[in-house]
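Problem: given the chain below (247 residues), write out its structure.
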Amino acid sequence: MRGVNFNMKVFELAKELDIENKKIIEVAQDLGYEVKSHMTKLDDEQAEGIKKSLELNTDTSQPESKPKQTSKKNIQPKEEPWKPDLNRMICLKNISSGRLIYKSKRKIGYKIVWENPGDTNNIELGEFIDLKNTDSRFIREPWIRVIEDDEIEILKYANIFKHYEEILGLNNVSDILRLDFNSFKKKFDKLPSGYKNSVVEQAAKMIKSGELDSIKIKNYIEESMEIELDILLQPEGKPVDNFINIK
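Solution.
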């Protein structure tokens, strides 16, 4: 710190110490010096007293440094990989347009019937895995849908995910018919053939009930599937059966 000049003015001391004039004036007045403005002259003793007072205040105002605490990272437990339980019961929903009958190859006399579209039944996971080998139409079309929180894991384990990839976001067949035309066209073109048939059946019903009034969607379905929706509905009491007949 360089020597203090005799008769140094307040603003000169403030400039030397790189602080505001106001601060010098406050400290000087606290020390009992008659200082009224930044132009007031200070002798060597006053300037030195102000400096020492500022140094003392600076030392005592420094916050006590706290030792850094090393934060432990929250180690998240790893999720266990999905493991199949072949004896587990899973829920299957009939997403076809008619009645479904499944007869097991594994168990004599084991049969499951879905009387109507939308019906659900429970089946062992192991039996479901064999189902695709019994009649691939159940999966390829597809006629059934897994209704479980881990549906994707089950489909991948059964190596049939590709048949369901385009319908995973659809909770009901009617969902696709409520899309705008461009979204419908893009989605419909990628659907498996069996699901397209279900969409056709649903479209005919919704046209009859007045729920589907999009001429573009109606025309596109008819052109793509080479059908006439107005005459598609069968008389009541004659449902279409999709079934497996194991001899």
